[in-house]
Amino acid sequence: MSNTKNTQESQSSQDSQKSQNSRKQTDKAADDRPSPMEVLRQARGQLAELTGMTAESVSSFEQTEQGWALEVEVLELERVPDTMSLMASYQVELDSQGQLTGYRRVRRYERGRSDPRRTGGH
Known about the structure:
- The chain is an alpha+beta fold.
- The protein contains two helices and four strands, in the order ααββββ.
- The protein has helices at residues 2-32, 36-51; strands at residues 54-63, 67-77, 86-95, 100-110.
- It has a four-stranded antiparallel β-sheet, covered by helices on one side.
- The mean pLDDT is 82.
């Protein structure tokens, strides 16, 4: 009977250790993911490096199933006065590790101009 008890205790100890190791691996995987601020910095830096244009701000940021989706405001053409400079919004996709997987320009505008008002509440 003591053999059975020792075997059960040993099995229980092994199960507990497996559970702890599994939690450590899960915690480690979570620690490997970049924080939202790291993702923002990486996105701005990678887009600037690829396009050669200055990423000025991030106007939209959300986590997706594949990683992250951002809209980044970029200075495309500097003019005098500054309010006449050409700006652009780029939609940027990143994987779960914060590596840029794609981008495209979705809007171009003068810095001093606001979006036109839409009628009908849209």
